Amino acid sequence: MMAVLQSGPYIKEQWKNVWQESSFRIKTYVGSVILIAILVYLPFFFKGIEKIEGAQLNDYILARLPAMDMSVLTFVLIWSMSIFILIRCIQSPAVFLVFLLSIDLLFLSRILTITLFPLNPPQGLIPLSDPIANIFYGGPEMFITKDLFYSGHTSSMFLIALCIPQKRYKQAAIGISISVGMLVLIQHIHYTIDVLAAFVFTYLIYLLGKKLAEY
Question: What is the DSSP letter of 63?
């Protein structure tokens, strides 16, 4: 099992060897282009879905949870995990490619599910303050309320957990992804079904992403 921190020469040698594989190069180029295109499109997509009227769900669990602003803790967990997976992607070409292709699939699937199952935001919703993520929503002052089914915060954290190879770090990351799911419920950003579905969709996406990343 590799340590979380690896020496520069070892990492460089891994990338040098794997870059000689044409399949790896092609999948990296294609996956990167798709990701860039998605990130450019997202602000327009989110702006559009805010104009669509959706269903208002009667959520038994949310109705019994007092709404609280958990933005700071959610922000810390999400971006700590994001930095961690970035480091792992740099250290491991295999982790990088699985995560790249899986995050593409995750974004595309959320665009599809949000479009097919429009929902109005839960009652008592408290806007999540995340100045970094808001860039992809259209600006620091922009808050999108209808990107609901399924939870992007929960799914992205769970995907990171699935992509981490070391068991002890994976277990901790799964715990964090569950915590983030609970936090967005406490803040009433998502319905319970959004969070539960995120784990199912993300696991299936990870399996497909892992298969596509084979080279």
Answer: G
| Sequence-ordered list of residues with C-beta below 8 angstroms from that of 158, at least 6 positions apart, any chain | 174, 177, 198, 199, 202, 203
Amino acid at 101: L
Give the model confidence (pLDDT) of 97-119 as tens digits: 999 999 999 999 999 999 999 99
Is the confidence at residue 4, as pLDDT, over 50?
no
141: Cβ contacts below 8 Å, ≥ 6 apart:
134
**Angstrom distance (rounded) from CA 184 to CA 205:** 22
What are the φ and ψ backbone dihedral angles of 69, each rounded to 5 degrees?
Answer: -80, 110
Residue type, 167: K
**Following CA atoms 41, 47, 48, 50 in sequence, which dihedral angle do they give, to the nearest 10 degrees?**
140
Helix (DSSP H) and strand (DSSP E) numbers for the chain: 7, 0
Question: Which residue type does 78 have?
Answer: I
Residue 57, both tokens: 């769900």
Assign 206 to helix, strand or coil.
helix
